[in-house]
Amino acid sequence: MSRAIKKNVSSLSFSFSRLYRKIATAKPSTLMLSAIVLSFTIFLFGGGLYDIIMKPLPAVYYSGRFIFLYPQLSEQFISDSIIATILYTFGIAGLLLLYQSTKYAYKPRQAYMTFIAGIILVMLAYIILELTIQIKLG
């Protein structure tokens, strides 16, 4: 082997070992990691995996109107998943606002407003999710 090829091969292995060291010692931020976990959880709770596997219809036009919620609990439309995902996002955002309100102990007005906004989002998500279940049950 010529010297140039040996030099390139040895520097290539050094580059790979340096890249491996960077990847092995990388520490992602906790905010990014928690955002990824929360979005994956909301995706699963909203029925995203069901949508990927079963490939349901987006909605149905029946008797002169659109039906966005499937009338039985055993199946769903894509619009069911979108509605559930949005409502779960509201609920998680409300819980995060409730958590943030505890950080403003020396600013009672800001803590109270954040607390009220969190309660409103959590209650809104809960009530609408219950209503959609009641619509599906008939």
What can you tell me about this protein's structure?
It is built from 5 helices and 2 strands. The termini are far apart. The mean pLDDT is 87. The radius of gyration is 25 Å and the shape is flat. The protein has a domain at 46-137. Strands 1-2 form a two-stranded antiparallel sheet. The protein is mainly alpha-helical and 138 residues long. Helix 4 packs antiparallel against helix 5 (108-137).
Beta-strand content = under 5%
Major β-sheet profile: 2 strands, antiparallel
Total of DSSP H or I helical runs spanning 4+ residues: 5
Order of helix and strand elements from N to C terminus: HHHEEHH
Helix fraction?
A: over 70%
Strand order of the largest sheet: 1-2
Secondary-structure class:
mainly alpha
Number of strands: 2
Average pLDDT for all residues: 87
What shape does the CA trace take? flat
Uncertain spans, ≥5 residues at pLDDT below 50? none
If you compute it from the alpha carbons, what radius of gyration comes out, rounded to the nearest whole angstrom? 25 Å
Distance between the termini: 79 Å
Characteristic terms for this protein:
138 residues, mainly alpha, two-stranded antiparallel ribbon, 5 helices, 72% helix, 4% strand, flat
